[in-house]
């Protein structure tokens, strides 16, 4: 049988013999060809059954429009995002960042939010801890290099204000990448309140708390999803003593700020603000599926080195291309993976920060975590 090369949804070429037909379908995040008229993505139903979601061409176009992917505009004076054709400088917030903000606040609250932020800035001048300021100063020098769009003074102010605003957590490494990414789309005060939304309503606060309970929680959840979706890779990582936190920690602390190129960060946050941590998990699964064949050929140190080379690829188009990932497709395809959000959130709610374990009885644990495959 001749092996033909066919394009997958993420832009990599695979041998046709490597693809599994419908009769022998096994868990896979994305297996499609250019010849297919419909994009197929995996789904998990609440009963643990895996099925493929059929997405028509029209729906895919609608999805692209809803993601506000307007990168075709060339605004010569704006080095920040190109989400809106009418924004000509770096002082304005793009419409998609306002859309994120308006999931909690109303447009008539913007003036007050800005006034409140100005007061917080003044307060931070007097009450910011010296230790925090030193750490912030160290980290902003290594955040996105010499990116044209990023005003390091603005980044410094937002992080310093945050360290005073939430003193029980303060500033923690990783926040610098989160805020810098938000500043790519938003002006200073909007970026601050988006960070507030992420830490509160969208529950990223515990990844920065003492003892890092959130890091443990999300790594455990990723383990369970890997076991369900990518059992061969999950088993290989166990044999190679690769713990999830070895490669996921930077992704979690920075909310993928060290991994996803800035030009595609809008698509990521569009979905994150809708699906919260579930979308984060989908991205992890999508990336692991994408590199699965290569990872299965590697051993311990090689695997760790491999992941380290995938981070911090932000601006250089050649660097982004060398990753061989069609990021726009990856981010959009990940959003189509159906995972029961209520089910996952119910499990996350049962995580005990002290024991760092999910407090589930054995039957619930088996049904809700282990047996996603049915």
Automatic annotation (TrEMBL):
Keyword Ribosomal protein included in the entry's annotation: no
Domain Rab-GAP TBC: 90-276
Alphabetically ordered keywords of this record: Coiled coil
UniProt xrefs under SUPFAM superfamilies: Ypt/Rab-GAP domain of gyp1p (SSF47923)
Classification via InterPro entries: Rab-GAP-TBC_dom, Rab-GAP_TBC_sf, Rab_GAP_TBC_domain
One protein family per Pfam: RabGAP-TBC
Record GO terms (molecular function): GTPase activator activity; small GTPase binding
Source taxon at top rank: Eukaryota
Coiled-coil blocks: 110-137
Segments for region (Disordered): 1-45
Keyword presence, Coiled coil: yes
Comp. bias intervals (Basic and acidic residues): 1-17
Name by which UniProt lists this protein: Rab-GTPase-TBC domain protein
Organism from which the protein derives: Tetrahymena thermophila (strain SB210)
């Amino acid at each position: 049988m001749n092996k033909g090369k066919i394009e997958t949804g993420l832009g990599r070429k695979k041998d046709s013999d490597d693809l599994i037909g419908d009769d022998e379908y096994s868990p896979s995040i994305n297996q499609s060809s250019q010849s297919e008229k419909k994009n197929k993505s995996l789904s998990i139903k609440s009963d643990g059954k895996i099925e493929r979601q059929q997405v028509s061409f029209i729906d895919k176009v609608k999805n692209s429009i809803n993601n506000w992917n307007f990168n075709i505009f060339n605004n010569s004076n704006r080095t920040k995002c190109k989400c809106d054709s009418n924004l000509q400088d770096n002082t304005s917030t793009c419409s998609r960042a306002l859309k994120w903000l308006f999931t909690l606040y109303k447009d008539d609250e913007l003036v007050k939010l800005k006034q409140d932020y100005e007061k917080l800035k003044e307060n931070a001048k007097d009450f910011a801890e010296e230790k925090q300021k030193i750490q912030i100063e160290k980290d902003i020098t290594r955040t996105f290099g010499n990116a044209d769009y990023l005003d390091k003074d603005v980044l410094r102010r937002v992080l310093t204000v945050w360290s005073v605003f939430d003193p029980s957590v303060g500033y923690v490494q990783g926040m610098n990448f989160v805020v810098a990414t938000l500043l790519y789309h938003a002006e200073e005060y909007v970026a601050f309140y988006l960070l507030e939304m992420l830490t509160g309503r969208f529950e990223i606060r515990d990844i920065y708390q003492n003892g890092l309970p959130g890091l443990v929680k999300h790594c455990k959840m990723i383990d369970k999803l890997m076991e369900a979706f990518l059992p061969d890779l999950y088993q290989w990582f166990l044999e190679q003593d690769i713990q999830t936190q070895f490669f996921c920690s930077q992704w979690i602390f920075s909310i993928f700020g060290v991994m996803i190129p800035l030009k595609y960060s809008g698509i990521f946050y569009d979905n994150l603000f809708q699906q919260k941590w579930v979308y984060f998990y989908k991205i992890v699964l999508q990336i692991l599926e994408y590199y699965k064949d290569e990872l299965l050929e590697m051993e311990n140190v090689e695997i760790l080195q491999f992941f380290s080379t995938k981070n911090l690829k932000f601006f250089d188009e050649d660097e982004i291309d060398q990753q061989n990932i069609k990021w726009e497709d990856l981010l959009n395809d990940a959003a189509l993976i159906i995972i029961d959000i209520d089910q996952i959130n119910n499990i996350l709610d049962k995580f005990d920060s002290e024991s760092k374990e999910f407090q589930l009885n054995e039957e619930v644990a088996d049904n809700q975590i282990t047996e996603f495959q049915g």
